[in-house]
Design a protein that fits this description.
The longest helix is centred in the middle third of the chain and has 16 residues. By secondary structure, the chain is α/β, with parallel strands linked by helices. It has 3 domains: 96 residues, 3-Layer(aba) Sandwich (Udp-n-acetylmuramoylalanyl-d-glutamate--2,6- Diaminopimelate Ligase, Chain: A, domain 1), CATH 3.40.1390.10; 220 residues, 3-Layer(aba) Sandwich (UDP-N-acetylmuramoyl-L-alanine:D-glutamate ligase), CATH 3.40.1190; 155 residues, Protein-Tyrosine Phosphatase, Chain A. It has 17 helices and 26 strands. The strands form 5 sheets. It has an 11-stranded mixed β-sheet with strand order 11-10-9-12-8-13-14-15-16-17-18, with helices on both faces. The chain has a 6-stranded mixed β-sheet with strand order 19-20-24-21-22-23, with helices on both faces. The protein has a 5-stranded mixed β-sheet with strand order 2-7-6-5-4. α9 links the parallel β14 and β15. The chain binds ligand UAG, adenosine-5'-triphosphate, 2,6-diaminopimelic acid and magnesium ion (MG). Adenosine-5'-triphosphate binds next to α4, α10 and α12. It comes from Anditalea andensis. Its EC number is 6.3.2.13. It catalyses: UDP-N-acetyl-alpha-D-muramoyl-L-alanyl-D-glutamate + meso-2,6-diaminopimelate + ATP = UDP-N-acetyl-alpha-D-muramoyl-L-alanyl-gamma-D-glutamyl-meso-2,6-diaminopimelate + ADP + phosphate + H(+).
Length: 488
């Protein structure tokens, strides 16, 4: 049991009412999860304001309330603590409540529009190969050593995050590789954590529904670097013009990686095929199992982090050449000469990169058929851009549903259609049902053709009208390929 004043250590307080030595047995930010003896933190959200649930939390047994605005009605059995930023306070409280696990684990946070999961997963696989007990917090899954713990967010909320870190520490983890989403940075999910290093992969169009402007999206990413301590490292992509922006105000030691501009960790692509990637890194030629120029950047980021954490370059490269990468990223299968590639490209930049990679590895005569949709309740600006890119680099495109969530599926596809010009229009077919869309692509395909199924990668569900139903692009593609081409 901990006293309220102890878990408020390092939180800047504006005012307090009541006993600061009251014992608290849990930290909660959702009134629906309140139990007797907990502290409830009222956070303003995108849908509702946690302050509206203070009374409910008190009725549910909360002994302390942390809030930005003191409630009009206070109970003399409860302690009230006013802070200027409850979301930030929540992070610090969560860290204190779980005994600050981040101080005993080297945490590397990866941010950027694309490549976070890939980079964090590669790091986790690599460090495990090198004999370190390590943790992973990612979009696809959380991991403690080899144990998989399902993931609900790219970056968990502050309480889940610190609970997981504490479990990692108990299991002997020395390192944790995690994704830092821009939502998480703005919502202070990582406040109170001690970060050993941060990586910036790249920034391109995404999440403008949430951040409003591209400038604010950049600022969200930069906040991670601005808040790094002096003994941390900041490693950025030198070929992304925002890489230097990330380093402008950081106290951390600055490093870079890249293929084009001068960088601390630099490589040249020697070959790039559907079988793998060969890079010249600091005058060593190394072959990797992952594919595409964009993955050369991820490999360099991983190399940089590993060296900065004390690894030896030769050993790192040797082990790195064996690792496979994250699930549902450039996940290919070939059946009767037809190749399907399932990839999590759900931004214009990612889609362009993946399609350029496919263009680069094809011999010329085979067709590229793309199946793609865009998520509902997410940045609408991506929709026309992604449809246009799909058509620009493909011979045939089936515009379909991704996770429409609460939106009308066909309305999303129609938004995508507005991005088509008269030439691309001729290549496109609109088909709401994703399984039908994949089936159509597979029916169109002939020996040698490549089908890209983009947007959902590792996901094993599809969310339509708020209901999640099982759906796995990889499984659907595999079944339909066999069904439709078995006699050829
Ligand atoms: C837009 C967004 O980031 N939303 C996250 C946010 O919810 P919110 O701001 O909408 O919260 P809200 O519903 O308005 O509630 C405000 C506060 O009132 C509390 N409340 C609410 C109702 C109630 O009855 N009682 C109560 O106490 C809530 O617990 C909350 O503290 O805070 C919640 C708690 O941490 C998150 O679960 C939720 O994630 C939603 C589900 C989500 O879809 N988030 C996505 C966009 C997201 O975070 N994605 C990034 C990755 C993006 C990327 O890089 O690709 C991620 O890190 O996963
Ligand atoms: N370094 C990179 N640069 C550009 N595109 C990339 C890069 N790495 C991966 N991609 C593309 O982006 C897709 C998503 O990659 P990944 O899952 O690693 O990104 P993420 O940043 O974790 O995404 P999310 O924000 O959804 O968590 C991949 O399937 C691939 O198409
Ligand atoms: N982390 C991203 C993932 C998008 C994946 C795509 N399949 C979708 O559902 O929109 C988001 O939450 O915006
Ligand atoms: Mg991710």
């Amino acid at each position: 049991m901990k006293e309220l004043k102890d878990i408020l250590y390092k939180v800047s307080l504006t005012a307090t009412i009541g006993d600061m030595e009251v014992e608290v047995n849990d930290v909660v930010f959702d009134s629906r999860k309140v139990s007797k003896g907990c502290v409830f933190i009222a956070v303003k959200g995108t849908q509702v304001d946690g302050h509206d649930y203070i009374e409910q939390a008190v009725e549910g047994g909360a002994v302390a309330i942390v809030c930005e605005t003191m409630p009009k009605k206070v109970s003399d059995k409860v302690t009230y603590v006013q802070v200027s930023n409850p979301a930030k306070a929540l992070g610090i409280l969560a860290s204190n409540f779980f005994d600050n696990p981040s101080e005993y684990i080297k945490i590397v946070a990866v941010t950027g529009t694309n490549g976070k999961t890939t980079t964090a997963t590669l790091l986790h696989q690599l460090f495990m190969e090198m004999g370190y007990v390590s943790g992973l917090l990612s979009t696809v899954e959380n991991k403690i050593n080899d144990e998989v713990i399902p993931s609900t967010h790219t970056t968990p909320d502050a309480i889940t995050l610190n609970r997981l870190l504490k479990k990692m520490l108990k299991e002997g983890c020395t390192h944790c590789f995690m994704e830092a989403s821009s939502h998480a940075i703005i919502q202070e999910r990582m406040a109170g954590l001690k970060i050993a290093g941060a990586v910036f992969t790249n920034i391109s169009h995404d999440h403008l529904d949430y951040h409003g402007t591209f400038d604010d999206y950049i600022k969200a990413k930069k906040k991670l670097f601005d808040e790094l301590p002096q003994d941390a490292f900041a490693l950025v992509n030198a070929d992304d013009k925002r890489g230097l922006v990330m380093l402008q105000n950081t106290k951390a030691s600055k490093y870079s990686f890249g293929l084009k501009y001068p960088a601390d960790y630099k490589a040249k692509i020697l070959s790039n095929t559907l079988q793998g990637l060969e890079l010249d890194i600091h005058n060593r030629s190394v072959w990797f199992r992952i594919i595409g120029e964009f993955n050369a950047y991820n490999i360099l980021a991983v190399l940089g982090v590993s060296v900065l954490l004390g690894g030896e370059e030769e050993e790192i490269l040797m082990q790195l050449s064996k690792v496979k990468g994250a699930q549902g990223r450039f996940d290919q299968q070939t059946y009767k000469g037809i190749t399907t590639i399932v990839d999590y490209a759900h931004t214009p930049d990612a889609l362009e990169n993946v399609l350029k990679t496919i263009q680069g590895v094809r011999s010329g005569i085979e067709k590229i058929i793309t199946v793609v949709g865009c998520g509902g309740n997410r940045d609408k600006g991506k929709r026309p851009l992604m449809a246009n890119i799909a058509c620009q680099y493909s011979d045939k495109v089936i515009l379909t549903s991704d996770n429409p969530r609460d939106e009308e599926p066909m309305a999303i596809i129609k938004d995508m259609e507005t991005g088509l010009n008269p030439i691309s229009y001729r290549k496109a077919v609109l088909m709401e049902d994703r399984k039908e869309a994949i089936k159509t692509a597979i029916m169109f395909a002939e020996k040698g053709d490549i089908i890209l199924i983009a947007g959902k990668g590792h996901e094993t569900y599809q969310e339509i009208k708020g209901v999640k139903k099982p759906f796995d692009d990889r499984r659907v593609a595999q079944e339909l390929l066999k069904l439709l081409h078995s006699d050829k």
